Amino acid sequence: MILKLLQLSSSTLPLGAYSYSEGLETAIDSDLIKHDTRTDGKRDRDLLEWLTQELHYGAIRIESALMLRSYRCLIAGDLEGLREWNQWGSAAKETSELRQQSWQMGNTLTRLLLELDKVRSYPANSNLDLATAVKKVGKPCNYAIAFGIGAAYWQIEEYTAILGYLHSWATNLINVGVKLIPLGQTKGQQLLWELHPDIESTATAILKLKDDDLYSCSWGLGLASMMHETQYSRLFRS
């Protein structure tokens, strides 16, 4: 299970995640997250605060909960529910950039899962039909939905899958900060280490979220993402 989780959540998975900043590029450019001109020696604190708030109140909570619903739908054989949650996930995106990111990464991941299924060296969940599930969801497929399908099919325990999903998200955005603030590689790893308790508590909370509780307070992310679409100079796609 651990090896499957490591592969599914790896930053080396060819999904293009490294090309997205999820609004961070705008936040750094606007000095909401300070550049290296900050004089108090705590350049990483703004980024830590941004990520912590996102974990506890932001869109990543909803994305993780959506991933879990995809996981549970596949386990239960509820392919219609899987399709409906995918549509819900598309409607919940606040900007076109965030939606395109989710679709691009999700479509790429479903293709990769199908290719890996041809060459797996040990059985996945034989009670689930990966190809049928992917076909039922159709395109565009959101990344959270694709990740949930992969985690369920590869028999990764659901809490562990949420941890992997959140860790992958945090790793990618910390790497954005390493490049743009800039932070050193060691500082980036220290920042990720500090986030571990928040990742664990968020994963635990997501397991208990009811459908009616799927909401977030991520207006900062939404505004940063909308501004990014017209930002003069960009390194990232979102």
What does this structure look like?
The chain is an all-alpha fold and 238 residues long. The chain has eleven helices and no strands. The protein has helices spanning 2-8, 24-29, 43-57, 59-76, 79-92, 96-119, 130-137, 143-153, 158-180, 185-208, 219-228. Helix 4 packs across helix 8.
Q: What's the arrangement of secondary structure elements?
A:
Elements: H1 2-8, H2 24-29, H3 43-57, H4 59-76, H5 79-92, H6 96-119, H7 130-137, H8 143-153, H9 158-180, H10 185-208, H11 219-228
Helix pairs in contact: 3-9, 3-10, 4-5, 4-8, 4-9, 4-10, 6-8, 9-10
Features:
mainly alpha, 238 residues, 0% strand, 67% helix, 11 helices, single chain
How far from one another are the termini?
32 Å
- The count of strands amounts to 0
Number of helices, counting only DSSP H or I runs of 4 residues or more: 11
What spatial form do the alpha-carbon principal axes imply?
globular
* Radius of gyration based on Cα positions: 18 Å
Overall pLDDT level: 89
| Strand content range | under 5%
Task: Point out poorly predicted stretches.
Answer: none
What order do the helices and strands follow? HHHHHHHHHHH
Query: Based on helices, strands and strand pairing, what is the structural class?
Result: mainly alpha
Which range best describes the helical content: under 10%, 10-25%, 25-40%, 40-55%, 55-70% or over 70%? 55-70%
Question: How can the largest sheet be summarized?
Answer: none
